[in-house]
């Protein structure tokens, strides 16, 4: 673990009025040439929220983007996982100190280790050992939004702490992006209100790229596959160049029915594929 002083902070973090005096870093911060995108949302995320997190971040895979989030349960951890799955750098900003013994939530120590193994970073303004306190969560949020060009809100209820991050981003004159939700669903009430109040509507990756000041490629590069797939899972995804019925997919992947069913079940649980109207396609 090393200390980072104010003059060495990411450029945008140096600009906020309430920047920390010192940061403790494990790992390496992404290149300053990348666009930092803060991605946050509800801890009790819905299937829709999880799917949109994976889909939107996967769409950024061939662009110079780094994903910033808070390692929390729900959307935050899904954002880190989605970034890791497609090879994007990711940084976890913590409400605790960055040592394994204090890291919050403790259940995400393996995810934190995966972030470090992939060349990412854990960031905290607290010297170890420090367990999170009530005040350290909004304090963490200001660092996430402060170091980012824009903040993407995937999912949030009316009283979600995620809205604190959105407010801070606005205070710092950074763009707030929001994913629309079905009316009447509590998990989306907060983001729908943000949209009503002027947040940028996100319909797909192109909207995020525009907010980051990046030009969408005319011919997108193929999104890389997650690095922790089994051989059978990789064959299924390679075969899914279009929506296919199950029997046709099994034939194209050259797998037995049993092998294919095991791989499909795993990919469905991870949100990497979807099944609609009898056809299977990449999420």
UniProtKB/TrEMBL annotation:
Domain DprA winged helix as annotated: residue spans: 224-275
* Gene Ontology process terms (BP): DNA-mediated transformation
A Pfam family this chain is assigned to: WHD_DprA
Smf/DprA SLOG domain location is: 5-212
The species this protein was found in: Candidatus Adlerbacteria bacterium RIFCSPLOWO2_01_FULL_51_16
Where does the record place a coiled coil?
A: none
The molecule here is called DNA protecting protein DprA
Which InterPro entries has this protein been placed in?
A: DprA, DprA_WH, DrpA_SLOG, WH-like_DNA-bd_sf
Q: Which family does it belong to?
A: Belongs to the DprA/Smf family.
SUPFAM superfamilies reported for this sequence: MCP/YpsA-like
